[in-house]
Amino acid sequence: MTEPAWVAGVVVIPLVGALIAVLAGRRAAPIAVVTAVGAAVAAAALVRQIARDGVVEHAVGGWAAPLGIALRADGLSALFVAAVAVVGTAAIVYALAHPGTPHRFHAAWLLGWAGLAALAVSADAFNLYVALELLTLAGATLVALASEAAALRAALRYILLALAGSLAYLFGVVLLYAAHATLELSALGAAVTPGPVTAVAIAAMVAGLALKSALFPLHGWLPPAYAGAPAASAVVLAGLLGKASFLVLVRLWFEVVPPSLRPDAGLLLGVLGAAGALWGAVLALRQTRLRRLLAYSSVGQLGYLFLVFPLGTGPALAGAVYLVLAHAAAKAALFMAAGSIERACGSDELGALRGLAPRMPLTFLTIGLAGLTLMGLPPSGGFVAKWLLLGASLETGQWWWAIVLVVGGFLAAAYVFRVLRLAFLPAAGAAAIARAPRGAELPALALALVSLGLGLAAAPPLALLGAGP
Amino acid sequence: MSAWQLYALSGLAWFGVGMWGLFAHAHWVRKILAVNVAGSGLFLVLAALARRATTPAPDPVPHALVLTGIVVGISATALALSVARRLAEVEATARLDEDATHEPAAPPAGADARAGGDAAPPPAGGGAPP
Amino acid sequence: MSAGLAIDAALALVLPVLAWAVVATPDLRKAIVLFMALGLVAALAWARLAAPDIALVEAAIGTGVTGALLMSCVPWAESLTPASRRARADLALAGALAVVACLGWAIRALPEAGPGLTPAVLGALEVSGVEHPVTAVLLNYRSYDTLLEIVVLVAAAIGIDAVLPDDDARRRLAPPARSLVGVLSHLLVPGAVLVAGFLVWKGAHAPGGAFQAGAVLAAGGILLLFARRLRPVPFAARALRGALLAGPLLFLGVAVAPLVRGGRLLELPVAWAGVLILAIETVLVVTIAIVLLMFFPARVLASSRAPAATVEDPP
Fold first, then answer.
1. What pLDDT, in 10s, does the model give residues C80-90?
2. Residue B8 counted as domain residue
3. Is residue A275 a contact partner of residue A401, using CB atoms and an 8 Å limit?
4. To the nearest whole angstrom, how far is the Cα of C219 from the nearest Cα of chain A?
5. Which of A108, A157, A178 is facing C110, going by the closest CB pair?
6. How many domains are there within chain B?
7. Chain Cα centroid distance, residue B58
8. Is A174 touching B (CB cutoff 8 A)?
């Protein structure tokens, strides 16, 4: 008896669930719960399989590449799929409890889940394009569910910039296919030789993916999208969908880009990432609304991820991937908390936070715990990630990236403490607040604890990463 | 210059025009139209490169990729236009509400207070709906 | 220079100029008409590049449906608040020129001959279940792309449904218009259904297939919509969602079935490949046609003074 093809299962289960959720219309919620359980089981099985056997390959249709499409799951795929399962399940629980979540959230999010899983296990450059487009449409729908002018504008901007990014990426794919007659990533990596075709194709793909991942200065679309989306949508957008393009970029970088091109291009990406990390943190400090503060914080945290390109493989790659995981849990928890606060106070103005902590202790405990990851303080997962990145920058003699990491951490501490300080001040008046449902507060706290747990038990996930290339 | 190169460079210029339009135009629907122009140009490049096959028929794989790309493109276009249509309705309602609460001479305020700095440009001078 | 190359050179010159006209024309309606003209001229290029499948789909979907969709936006497009305060045309132009120069450099550097995957595609054609190479790629070798692409189409349908205002869930049914379109629809729609069926059947061994057929079917439906003989598609109706999802669900079923026996995702048994591909394509035609029809807004089509014959929400 051979083991089931979990690498296909992690894609197919949310896909079937999404279609049935569409069919169920207003009664999509129970379908979403069942699907989340099934997809989480498949994700856990995939993690176990990869931890035991190493990289898993699956030739879709029985056609080997280059004719067919290859699925390939390594440690990175498994960890990302697991993060999607954990954050995605928590988001569905949150959506059930958070009053006012549109019923269409479930179908849109399950489609996004399928797209993220498809992206994590695909080894085909064109198939990645289709998965990215699925994420664009699911993401835009998640934003547009709010049906307010600001959210609709943000959704439009998101679609157009994502389309521009996809076209740039696709142009690169077209050039590489024309030169090497394959779309399989590792075959492309073996075939590329330095020259105009490779350089231009890689530049187009990297630029497109950087635009889609909101790399500074292409980040303008992100804050209004995260701040305008419904609460449950913002959770999966900031926690997961926002990292999808970065994941593709990592694959491209370490599997296709020839090493001779890496130093210069890597330096450029690193500089832009560092600028984004600082700029995002500074702007987060200047926001007057909680969700915009968190969105700018995401711009900053995404910036750190790009330091992996000048720092190279090994501990830096592990650090960046670890930051993806820790930040996915922490930022999803924070957006859940922000949604609960917005619901309770009728607004997410920072001024409304005054004196709120004693009234919503669980929510502010969540903000405090998840905030540790943003600041990179022990014992959080964010600390492990930044420690690895710091070590890599000192080890490779590129100490300037370490300064960015440290300064960014101080700025993050400033904006997290600003929120907490307001909440613990004595209340100005006895403004009536609605009670946040436990069902909305608990998944947030659970995710905050996950981001903490990633710091306390870092060895197994890091060992899994070693299973990859 | 061979035929495939002619068409590939033609498609490239076509693509470039679309990309220019995407960033040069301020109006949403014009931007969406421009993205479609860029997409079709890229598809011409892809089909032209498929013609480099030494066999009598061109390489079928790029043709299949273009067909997939066209369907993905229309999906995104249709969603974008639907969002734009909804935005037009929301904005029209907001303007009606404004007209009802302010005296007619009041200048139009920012489109939406929630949008914040970089998301809410002031309404265009002209082109107000009836 | 041969006559063929002269035609190629002329086309290669005209296409970007037309594209320029589409983008640069100030009037939106004119720009859309030019966009459709661009699509028609491009059909010649597809023919010259021996790409009949692309010609069919690009004409039906890329030009026809997209053009009609854009046209349906003209009444309100100008009233929208612009995306940005001022257009940065100069900066955009410089950027586009730089991008085109780089990409052109790469295209010029490509080897003159590139067989691509033609030998591999033709080599496996015998066991693919179909004789037409493009259909073999779309529905067998790379059917996973096609599966995800259908899901993209469904995602668009969900998104469109999601941004409809709540009161739009009950659509008004406008009375049939007595117009040229109305008369034409009588003649053309049965033809569209016939052509769609023919294209699916033909796709197995010649250019044609589900997307072409779905687009033709949708074109017939759009005609009926404009003639007010068809209700704008109400997504709230469960029967419609069922018809829409039958195709993707069958496709997924075919995809998953081999996994149960320890096979590969989407692995088609050689003996059944032809039948399965035809079945998938047939149900996909319906999906594609419905989604393409859903793209058309009820609001714009239904006149506000129409009698309110509403479609009920499901309970």
1. 888 876 667 78
2. yes
3. no
4. 24
5. A178
6. 1
7. 30
8. yes
Residue of C91, C142, C164, C261 to mutate, testing the A interface (most A Cβ within 10 Å of its Cβ) = C142
A177 contact residues in B (CB cutoff 8 A):
49, 61-62
Q: How far does B103 lie from chain A, in Å, by closest CA? A: 23
The candidate with the shortest Cα–Cα distance to A124, out of A255, A312, A306, A305, is A255
pLDDT, tens only, C198-243: 887 777 777 767 777 877 787 777 777 766 666 555 566 677 788 8
Range of the domain at B53: 3-91
How near does any CA of chain A get to the CA of B112, in Å?
7
pLDDT over threshold 70, residue C178: no
B111 — contact with chain A (CB < 8 Å)?
Answer: yes
Check if A30 contacts C (Cβ < 8 Å): no
- Subunit contact A9:C259, Cβ cutoff 8 A: yes
Q: CA–CA distance from A408 to each of A234, A284, A301, A400 (Å)?
A: 23, 11, 9, 12
Q: Which residues of C touch A145 (CB under 8 A)?
A: 162
The number of domains in chain A is: 1
| Higher pLDDT, residue A1 or B15 | B15
For residue A210, what pLDDT is reported? 95
Joined tokens for residue A64? 């080997």
Q: Does residue A414 lie within any of the structural domains?
A: yes
List CB contacts of B70: < 8 A, sequence separation 6 or more: B39, B43, C54, C57, C58, C61, C62, C211
Between chains, do A181 and C116 touch, taking CB under 8 Å as contact? yes
Return the CATH number at B37. Answer: 1.10.287
| CA gap C274, C255 in Å, rounded | 15
Query: What's residue C128's pLDDT?
Result: 92
What pTM was computed for the model?
Answer: 0.92
| Contact C78/B at CB under 8 A | yes
In the predicted model, what is the mean pLDDT of residues A75-93?
A: 97
How many other CB atoms are found less than 10 A from the CB of residue C108? 13
- Average pLDDT value over all residues in chain B: 80
Residue B118 is assigned to a structural domain of this protein: no
Residue A104 inside a domain? The answer is no
**What are the φ and ψ backbone dihedral angles of A458, each rounded to 5 degrees?**
-85, -20
In a domain, A258, yes or no: no
Decide if B58 is inside a domain. Answer: yes
Cβ-in-10-Å burial (0-12, 13-18, 19+) of C313 comes to middle
The set of residues, in sequence order, having a beta carbon less than 8 Å from that of C75 and lying 6+ positions away, is C300
Q: For position A446, what pLDDT does the model report?
A: 98
A299 in contact with chain B, both atoms CB, cutoff 8 A: no
Q: What is the pLDDT of residues B44-84, one digit of tens each?
A: 999 999 998 777 889 999 999 999 999 999 999 999 999 99
Say which residue the tokens 């990645």 belong to. A128
Residue A12 within a domain: no
- Give the mutation candidate from A1, A46, A69, A261 for the C interface (greatest C CB count, under 10 A): A69
Put simply, the answer to whether C141 touches A12 (Cβ < 8 Å) is: no
* Beta-carbon contacts below 8 Å between B and C: 314
Please give the residue range of the domain that contains residue A392: 275-455
Spatial contact of A153 and A227, defined as CB atoms under 8 Å apart: no
Most A-contacting residue of C163, C241, C268 (CB-CB within 10 A), to test interface: C163
Q: Which residues are bridge partners to A73 per DSSP?
A: A56
Could you give the ipTM of this predicted complex?
Answer: 0.95
Q: What is the mean pLDDT of residues A338-353?
A: 91
On whether residue B19 sits in a domain, the answer given is: yes
For an interface test with C, which of B75, B77, B96 has the most C Cβ atoms less than 10 Å from its Cβ?
B75
Cα separation values, A304 from A178, A286, A407, C66, C112, Å: 34, 20, 12, 40, 42
* pLDDT tens per residue, range A404-415: 999 999 999 999
Q: What is the distance in angstroms between the Cα of B113 and the nearest Cα belonging to chain C?
A: 14
Residues C162/A143, Cβ–Cβ less than 8 Å:
no
**pLDDT band per the 50, 70, 90 thresholds, residue B120:** very low
